[in-house]
Amino acid sequence: MTQRGAVLVTGGGGYIGAHCCKALHEAGYLPVAFDDFSTGHRSFVKWGPAVEGNVQDPKSLEAVFRTQDFVAVMHFAAASAVGESVVDPHKYYTNNVGGTLTLLRAMRDAGCQNLIFSSTGAVYGNASSEPIAEGAIKSPINPYGRSKLMIEDILADYRTAYGLRSFCFRYFNASGADSSGEIGEDRDPETHLIPRAIMALQGEVGDFAIFGNDYPTPDGTAIRDYIHVSDLAAAHVMGAGLLASGHGGGIYNLGTGAGYSVKDVLSAIFRETGLTMPLVYRPRRAGDPPMLIADPSAARRDLGFKPSHSSLDAIIATAWRWHRSIAKHR
Questions:
Q1: What's the Cα-to-Cα distance from 209 to each of 6, 18, 86, 200, 215, rounded to whole Å?
Q2: Residue 181, in any domain of the structure
Q3: Is there a domain that residue 216 lies in?
Q4: Pairing label, strands 223-224, 260-261
Q5: Which residues are bridge partners to 114 per DSSP?
């Protein structure tokens, strides 16, 4: 047992979950990655045990809770593609909401009261052009965002009824890769802008396109707030420590407060890589809002959270380094 105890990381073989496992290990915790590996990678589980299981399966959850007296749970196991959620909402409500309810029951049965939940800026829906504070109206425009908001409401009820302590971290566009190159974004299929554009430049994606150039934004393409995955991981480790010390938790945006359009991001990628490609445009994807930029002031004020790796250039440099390294092994 490590000095600070064990943390169960659902979805620990995934992109964000694996980065959190590394950060937990470096902070003196034992991360236990719980994943069905349908989209996560066994090779990403490097800093603690890998336990194969699905959060919708109560028996596998009961079994893993018998292995450790967990000081906290970090919950990343979820379906997360906005476009897919529009065409297959059943998958999103079953996986995300149903899986979370099963996990919460297992936590209650095991006496574990500390949860850090991976939420999303998609709960805000079609927000204004201003950075979004936590108190803004929540009106998600896709089933993915609605499923996450439902879970936030469930956690509030569990806090009142059962004394559950939880952080809901609404992060915006997780991006970049581990600075040492051990882990990064590796999905099949890849749907996210930065890795998909890099893969297109490497000749691994033949149909790269910008979805929508008619948004009400300065250059017509959608604007997002990009935060480095290592900064997200640091926030989750901070949250685990606070909950273990008796903090009641809360809901916080994790972002930078800066927005970049799709064209801005592509220009930065072209600068970093020294490569370029023609820009191809297609119609907007269903469920994509024009702009999502976080107001991160509450996390900075209450938690002392300040991203240190999240400049756009740093994000793209680490992503490019990761994708070059894995391309050699494909």
A1: 43, 29, 20, 10, 15
A2: no
A3: yes
A4: antiparallel
A5: 165
Query: Which structural domain range is residue 20 located in?
Result: 6-176+226-254
56 touches 29 (CB < 8 A): no
Q: Which residues contact 295 (CB under 8 A, 6 or more apart)?
A: 130, 131, 132, 133, 134, 253, 255, 257
CA angle 40, 44, 45 (to 5 degrees): 100
Nearest Cα neighbor of 290 from 220, 210, 215, 219 is 215
User: Residue 1: what pLDDT?
Assistant: 44
Last residue of a domain, one of 214, 238, 254: 254
Active site residues: 144
- The total domain count for the chain is 2
Asked if residue 162 is part of any domain, the answer here is yes
**250: region left, alpha or beta (phi > 0 left; psi from -120 to 50 alpha):** left
Copy the structure tokens of residue 10.
């659902």
Give residue for tokens 């991001």.
265
Residue 186 lies in a domain: no
- For residue 183, name the pLDDT band (cuts at 50, 70, 90): very high
HSE at residue 223, side-chain half, CA atoms within 13 A, is: 20
Q: Are 5 and 244 in contact (CB under 8 A)?
A: yes
Do residues 254 and 296 lie in contact, with contact meaning Cβ atoms separated by under 8 Å? yes
The average confidence (pLDDT) of the chain is 95
For 162-175, the pLDDT digits (tens) are: 999 999 999 999 99
- Residue identified by tokens 């991203």 is 307
What's the confidence (pLDDT) of residue 81?
A: 86
